[in-house]
Design a protein that fits this description.
This protein has 312 residues and is mainly alpha-helical. It folds into 2 domains: 3-149, no CATH class; 162-309, Lysozyme (Orthogonal Bundle), CATH 1.10.530. The chain contains 12 helices and 4 strands; from the N terminus they run H-H-H-H-H-H-E-E-H-H-E-E-H-H-H-H. It has a two-stranded antiparallel ribbon. It has a two-stranded antiparallel sheet with strand order 3-4. Helix 1 (16-28) runs antiparallel to helix 2 and helix 7 packs across helix 9. The radius of gyration is 25 Å and the shape is elongated. It starts with 15 loop residues before the first helix and ends with a helix.
Amino acid sequence: MSVSSIDLSSKFALDTKGMGDLKQSAKAGSPEALKGAATQFEAMFINMMMKSMREATPQDELTGSEQTKMFTGMLDQQMSQNMAKRGVGLADMLIRQLSSQAAGTQALAIGGEPTGRSPTPTPTPTPTLEAMMSAPAALAAPAAAGAPSGVTHAASGRIQAPHVRAFQEKLAVHAQEAERSTGIPAKFMLSQAALETGWGKREIRHQDGSSANNLFGIKAGPGWKGKVATAVTTEYVNGVPQTRVEKFRAYDSYADSFKDYAKLITNNPRYEKVLANAKDAAGFAQGLQQAGYATDPQYAAKLSRIIKHNLA
C-alpha cells in the first residue's frame, strides 16, 4: 500500500502508530497526504489546548482521581479529532503555507534565471509538515499565530484560551494596583482569583444572583463590618472534603476585592512568608497553603499550575 493511499481520517496522531503513518504521509507530499497530516496536526494542537485548560481547572476528589483523568483524556482525544475534522482554521492555514512554499521551490527550480531586479528579502522558512509532526508542542504556538478559534497569545508568547485572556484583561488593572502595594506579581494574584472563582464562572453571589465581587474567597469573620454573602463551600478536615454553608465578605467592586486582599496579606503576620517569597511562584503558592489560607491539600499545586501554564 502506498503512503498516499493511507486513510488518514482513521488515524489518530496521539498514538504511536498514527504518528508514524503521519510522518510517512508528510514525506509523500501529495495533496491528500498534506491535507490529512495537517488535519491531524490541528487535532494535536486542539488536544494540547484542552489538556492545558483541564490542568488549570480546580478539581475535587472525584474529578481528580487517576481513573477519571484517564477517561477524561480519552474523551478529549476523541473530541479533538472530531473538532479537527470540522476544522478550526489551523489545518487550512498550514496547507496554504506549505503549498505556497512548495510552489515557490518548484518555480525556482524550473526558471531560476536572474531577472535583473533587486532580490526580495528571503522569507523566514516555514517548517515542513514532517517537522511539525515530529515536534508538535514546540511548533504549536508559532503555527497558531494568526489562527484558530479565538486562541490568542500573551505578551510572553504563551498561548491563551479565550476565557483566560478575557479574565486577565478584565482584572489586570486591579491586580497591577495591588502589586504596587504588596510586591506580589499581578499574575500571581490573578491566578489565585482564577482558582478561587473558576475563571469567574463560580463567583460567590447574593441571594438575588448578583455578584459579591469576592475574588479570593475571603470569609466574613467576627471582625468584618462590611457586606456579607452566604454561599456553599467545600472545606477539608483532615484531608476529607466537607460541604458547608459559610459567610463571605462582599464588595462593591472587583477593585475593592483586590484592595481588601492586599490589606489582608500585608497586615496579617501569618502571611509574612508569603510576602517574603512573593517573587517565586512555587514559594508564593506554598506560603499561602502553609499559612492556612485554604484547607484544600492540593491548593498550592493547583495555584502553581495556573501561574505556570496560563497567565502572561
